[in-house]
Amino acid sequence: MRVAVVTESFLPRVNGVTNSVCRVLEHLERRGHEALIIAPGPGPEQYAGHRVACVPGIGLPGYSSFVLGLPTKAVERRLRAFEPDVVHLASPVALGAAGAHAARKLGVPSVAVWQTDIAGFARRYGFRGTDRAIWAWLRHVHRLADRTLVPSSASHRQLEEHGFPRLAMWRRGVDSERFHPGHRSEPLRAALAPNGEVMVGYVGRLAGDKRVEMLTSLADVPGVKLVIVGEGPAEQRLRTLLPQALFLGFLDGRRLSQAYACLDVFVHTGADETYCQAVQEAMASGVPVVAPASGGPLDLVEPERTGLLFAPDSRAELRAAVARLVQDADLRARWGAAGRAAVEHRTWNAVNDQLLDHYQEVCRARVQFGGAAIPIAGPRPGAAAGPGAAAA
């Protein structure tokens, strides 16, 4: 199969969209498929043996590390030359919209992947009154696709309410060997918390849309060492607000695995997460989770079993949830083990085989109907869809 992946974000920029696209490309290579990546530049020439075609991009004002790909005619030219069997649209907005229009023009089926709540993102950055226009544009883009894949039941409900057609579930996998309690390092813990404090940590982008300023409610919880992993435009302000916290910067590889496993409690603050891979990685690392009762974490965190959920805007509930876990080591151990058991079977191989099933289904439907663009029904939210469904 020849798969063209049109993505709004790719290496060297690291975020949820990039990470999931990389896992898909690696899986395509393992299964013997050929891919072309169309992404904002600058970037690598290839990844996992697949060619990368970069298009011009511009940094967003106030967030230059986020590069928006320009929807030029080069997208259609690249797709026409590659002759894909299917087009994968990763979090389509601008570049992805060009990919969706080009796929429709060329008669190639496309699968759009919902990964970012753009309307929520805009609200967090002060763009009030834009919701209606944003949702209208995104609905237009996704209507061009043969199927839209959503990562959580909350996202499914949200898109259904906004009139998005042909929705199906496709969750995210986790590397349960890379993220494992066995990476816990007592020497590292002793270095980070020399007085034996309970380590409470956040891992992710330090940005306004992640609402990281809510971490300030944990600044003076007794017996806690607050550890923050990541970088972003809100970092300097957060350092000022939390002078006693440990800022470890951007981590990857073994250093990230150890950082997760060394935590006693994982905290997430973002309320607009379509899935929240960081929560799943913390659970795989055997760490109990405190997260907002909103979006993706609703599917991931089982209250009173793998962690706690708090009202998204309540700093008091966030603080109380963390304080409860800080005071009870046995509870942390039980919930951490339960979290690990809940996600360790969700391998990337399983969920990406399910993605291949979605590709094949939209391709078969196009053949059956003579290449015409037709409505293609997706499975019900939570329903089985292919061999990877049980693991998703």
TrEMBL record:
One of its GO terms (biological process) is carbohydrate derivative biosynthetic process. Residues 14-178 form the Glycosyltransferase subfamily 4-like N-terminal domain. The keyword DNA-binding does not apply. InterPro entries: Glyco_trans_1, Glyco_trans_4-like_N, Glycosyltransferase_grp1. The keyword Glycosyltransferase applies. It comes from the Bacteria. GO terms for molecular function: hexosyltransferase activity. SUPFAM superfamilies: UDP-Glycosyltransferase/glycogen phosphorylase. Keywords: Glycosyltransferase, Transferase. Residues 193-340 form the Glycosyl transferase family domain. This is Glycosyltransferase family 1 protein. It comes from Actinospica durhamensis.
